[in-house]
Structure formats: structure tokens, C-alpha cells
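ARCHIVE CARD
Drawer: 12
Card no.: 0347
Subject: one protein chain, sequence and derived structure
Cross-reference: see card 0346
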Amino acid sequence: MIDRDDLIVFCGRKHMAEKKVTGARWLWALLPVSGASGGLSILIPLHILSLGGSVVDVGVASSFYNLSIIPASLLWGQMTDTIRRRRPLIMLSYVSGTILLAMFFFTRSLPSTILLYVIYGFIGAAAAPAVNLLVIETSSKAELGSTFAKSSAMATIGYMIGTLPAAIWLAYFPLQTFVTYLVMLSSFSIALSFWLIPEPPLTLERRVVTKSPESLSHRLFSLPTIFLKTPSLHDFRTFWRAVRIGTGRDLLTLYVAMTFFFIGGSIFFTSYTPLLSAESSEGNVFLAYSFLSLVNTLSFPVAAQMMKKYREMRVGHYAVALRIIGSSSATVSALFLHGQPFFIATFVTFLIMGMAFSATYTSISTIILKILPKGRQGEFLGIYSAITGIGASVGAYASGWFSFVFGYATSFIVATIFVSASLLLLLPLKDK
């Protein structure tokens, strides 16, 4: 896939003109499909509830969806390294995803809805490794950072395109009909991919991501599931050996802290959507999550500016503390507010939660990047992906039962406890 000379070309020690750089026009193909997957992530819990399901069923769907992405990322990552062409895997993901979306229109039972959602998550992961490598393969070294930023912007704008129209759509049409809009978005991505996705003259393997600070930081900031290399038992032993001799203790602390952070977030949002739908309309649920996406988008650059003025760990401490305030505010709302007041309070809660997430993830991820052992970034990030992904799945499953048995406020209290534990782990750490 990649030899030493190609890697030297990528790192900029030879002139990039020797290889054709295609440009970033193809990134437009990512926008509609991001809207389709974003809209589906809100539609599924509401559809489960409309079929007579409970918050437990919502938790099961979210948990198995998160779990499916872990083996999917491993499989599709290996496929991406094996297959030299990028368009086939991306098209496979988009075409299969569109077919699955269309099938949601006909689902009338909880098992079929959950199963389709899990399969959608598994198939949807096929495009991610190819897309991320394609960014590197079609960009010059000088353009790499801006191209990754554009791909993130496409995903964020796409999410809002997929969720915001539902606020109007659902005022006139039943919930399940919104799937037709998502199918149209996904189909549009198929057409754009066919015309715009290039086949690069130079193909790389996933491990090349660790050779570029821009690509490595983008992968770490994008999702908790990052498998630049399939984690093996040897990788876990190496990691634990580093912890025992002291060189990996801070890294272990950060991993556990972020796992608690993700568990808390998973518990919170898995239960919040059913509660919000019970206190308001389905269209308002989409509206609220569109607002949360906007807050996240605007907060990331603010968090980056904060880290220029303050130490990264200090920003992380304040951000996690802010997250505790956000989940605590949801507890108060669940106990004392109902109907329209609860819906209005949701925007305050989501404003706090969104700002806190952006600052936490930016600051802590930056610290993790700094202390990753040279030459073992891929292995140690694989471990990070495994434990945070499993943590998010466990949190989603537990959330449904907590809310069903003890009430929504209890779930938010438990979420607050996990985030508080994350903060307690981070407080003794110093900047590197």
C-alpha cells in the first residue's frame, strides 16, 4: 500500500507536485449523508416510542448501535487497507445505507427497528476509514489541516440539515414519513459520490494517520471510535507494562477519565430524548438537538482560543465542571418542570452541555496526543477506542433501565456522578 518513498512524499520532503492533488471539492458528498445519519439518530428513539416501546428499548437500540460500530471499524479499516480504491467502499456504505433508510419506512415492530438501526451503524462505518485517508491522499501537506476542518464542517452542517427541517415537517406529516426526506439526502450523497469522489494516484494505509499531527488530531477529535490499528493482546500488555513502570500512568488516568465522561454522556442523552418527547412535541425534539449541534459547532473554535490563553488541563477541569452543572440542571428540570417550561429549560441545559463537551474533548484530546508514546500511537489509540466505545454502550443500556425503574432524574444523577468521577481523576494531573 505505502512504501518508504511514498511516506517521504507525504511528509513533505519531496515536492508534492510529483503526485496529483485532487482538491477538496469531493467533500460536498459528505454533507447530505451526514444529514441522513444525524436525522436518523433522533428519529429512531422517537419511532421506538411511537411503536409502544419504552426508554429501555431506546437504551437497547443505542447500546447495540454503539457496539456494532466497534467491530465494524475494525473490519472496514482492514478492508480499506486491503482495497486500493476508495470509491467502492464509500459507495457501498452510502447505497446500503440508503436502502436501509428506505426500509425504516415499513418497520412496524421494535425488533425490526432495532435490528435495522444496528445494521445501519455497521454499514455506515464502512465509509469513515476511506474518507479520512482520502483527505490525506487528495491534499497537499500545507492544505491538510484546512481540508480536515472542511470535512468536519460538512458533517456538522449536514447534521443540522438532517434535523432542523423536522421541526416543520412533523407539524404536518407523521413521524415515520420523515424517513423519505432522509432517503432523499442519502440518495443525493450517492450521486455526488459517483461524480466527485476521486481515486487517488497514491493510496495509503491507516497507519499513515499517525505520521501527521493534523490527521491524528482530527481522528481523535471526531469520534471515540478510532482504530488506526487493530488492538491485540500484545498491545494491551505493552500498555499495561508502560503503566506499571510509570510512563503510562497519566495516559491510563486520562483514558479512564474519558471513559467515565462518555458513560455519563451516554446515560444522559439516552434518557433525555424520551423525556423531552414526553414533555414536548416530536418536532421540538429535533429542534432542540439542532440547537445542540449549533452550540457544539460554535464552541469548538472558542475552546481552541481558550487553550491559547490557559493551560490545557485547566481548560479541561473547568469544562468537565461545566458538564456537571449541565447534567445537574437537567436533574432539576426533570423533577420540577413540565411541558413548555421544560422545553425552554432544555435549551439552557443543551447550551451548557454543548459548550462543556467541546472544551472537554478539545483540551483532553490534545493532552492525550502530547503524551502518546512515539511509534505506538495507533496501538494505544486502539485501546482508547475500545474502552470508550464499550463504555458508551454500557452507559446507554444502563440508562434505559435506570430511567424505567427509578425515573429520569435518577439517570441524570447517575450521569452526574460519572462525570464528577471523571473530574476527580483529572484534578491531580498536570499539563505536559
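Annotation on reverse: The domain at 22-230 is CATH 1.20.1250.20 (Growth Hormone; Chain: A;). DSSP finds 17 helices and no strands in the chain.
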